[in-house]
Structures are given as C-alpha cells and as structure tokens.
Design goal:
The protein has 65 residues and is an all-alpha fold. The chain is built from 2 helices and no strands.
Length: 65
C-alpha cells in the first residue's frame, strides 16, 4: 500500500552556519531528513503561534468608551 503523494513546493533559504550544524546533528541523531525536520518544526511553531493568539484574544478586555 503506497502513501498518498503530498503536494510539495521547493524553497531556498539562507540560515546561519551554526544553526545548520545544529540541524544536521539533530537529523543525524533522530534519523529524519532535513525536509521532515524543518516541516515539523515550522508547523509546530506556526500552530503554537496561532494558539497563543487565540489565548490572547480571550484574555483581552473590551475597551470602555
């Protein structure tokens, strides 16, 4: 049984050498490809951002005018 192919779009980016070295070490240790590691990290970062925004909206008090 084969997996469904996900639509992919190539991107190019520049990152600090130290961060690339950390990414390489992480990928070697975890057995993940850089693509998978970056996709997961970026997805978590964005999901956490939106969750935080929702919490901030709930805690905002309406202006009394």
């Amino acid at each position: 049984m084969s997996r469904d192919k996900k639509e992919k779009t190539p991107i190019s980016l520049r990152i600090e050498t130290v961060l690339l070295e950390k990414l390489n070490e992480f990928c070697d240790n975890s057995g993940q490809s850089k693509t998978v590691a970056i996709e997961r990290a970026l997805s978590k970062y964005i999901d956490d951002y939106w969750e935080e925004q929702k919490l901030l909206e709930k805690t905002k008090k309406p202006d009394k005018t």
